[in-house]
Amino acid sequence: MEDIEIKQENDSIIETKPKIEQEEDHVDIDKISSLKALGPFIAARENSKNTVYLSDVPAICKDQPCMLGVDEAGRGPVLGPMVYGISYCPLNSKEALVELGCADSKQLTEEKRDIIFNDMNTLEYANSCIGWAVEIISPNVISNSMYRRSKCSLNEVSMDSAMGLIQRAIDAGVNIAEVYVDTVGPPEKYQEKLLKRFPNFKITVAKKADSTYPIVSAASICAKVTRDHALKVWQFPEGLVIKDNAFGSGYPGDPVTKRFLTENIDLVFGFPRLVRFSWSTAENALADKAYEMEFDEPDTEKPKYAGTKLTKFFKGTTKTGEVKREECRFFKQCHLDNVTDF
């Protein structure tokens, strides 16, 4: 029950409620300092473009040699972004990762991943020695990359993002010594590519690295939490209103996702930006319902006759300056001659 203070002034009784001081609930949309700040940061960005965020680099990570882990979230879904994440800490700070609870992120519940992400950013023992970064790769960018004339596969998009984040950590001053990566494709080829780009690091690329190396688990948690919240705050520029963004997990086998795809097709323009229209699931849904479209292919064959080249009129001059040009075909066919003398 709320306490009420009673005062008597000039024979009148006045009821006054106690003042409760409340700070304004202000969230900085340019900095992710906790789980609470993650959603507003993402919502303030254009979701048709990629977004990169780097946490503050702990001072110790600039002075001491560090390990860095790389992993992704959302590679398979037909909906939403794919997120690449990195996490790093000094080689002798592994116990901080264990204390946070960094383990195979696929074995952790969404609630537990959120708690670890929040602790990583708010608890001093963690944020004083652990840094992280993510790249939110827009579904629009993924589809355009895979559909453009010089195609860029999802593996290439993934590797470019991973190497880009490592380079950003280097540029920010992180003293990287070892890199651990959850593989995309054959581990040997990926490792060779990374060593070629970063020859001074000890690099390990392995399958299921997030269940083997805690630093990769931390990167995976950052990526998964970021993707989850990117979907929660997704804004449809097409004007769609989906209550609680209830479009399912995004995986092709999810019945809620399938229903979203079939119910939200524009018969001419296809799907909203949330959908990776280069996925076969999306292509099949379009083939069943949308109008068929035909586009004229550019004429790549060389025309049989394109007329006389302009440069031809500047040819045929002799050393003495006399101009000898081939007679115009029209004049020949009509048996006409140039007349200069009358």
TrEMBL record:
GO cellular component terms given for this protein: ribonuclease H2 complex
UniProt-recorded Gene Ontology molecular function terms: metal ion binding; RNA binding; RNA-DNA hybrid ribonuclease activity
Coiled coil location: none
Pfam families attached to this UniProt entry: RNase_HII (PF01351)
Entry's cofactor comment: Manganese or magnesium. Binds 1 divalent metal ion per monomer in the absence of substrate. May bind a second metal ion after substrate binding.
Residues holding a divalent metal cation: D71, E72, D182
Catalysis performed (reactions): Endonucleolytic cleavage to 5'-phosphomonoester
InterPro entries listed in its UniProt record: RNase_H2_suA, RNase_HII/HIII, RNase_HII/HIII_dom, RNase_HII_hlx-loop-hlx_cap_dom, RNaseH-like_sf, RNaseH_sf
Function: Catalytic subunit of RNase HII, an endonuclease that specifically degrades the RNA of RNA:DNA hybrids. Participates in DNA replication, possibly by mediating the removal of lagging-strand Okazaki fragment RNA primers during DNA replication. Mediates the excision of single ribonucleotides from DNA:RNA duplexes.
Protein name: Ribonuclease
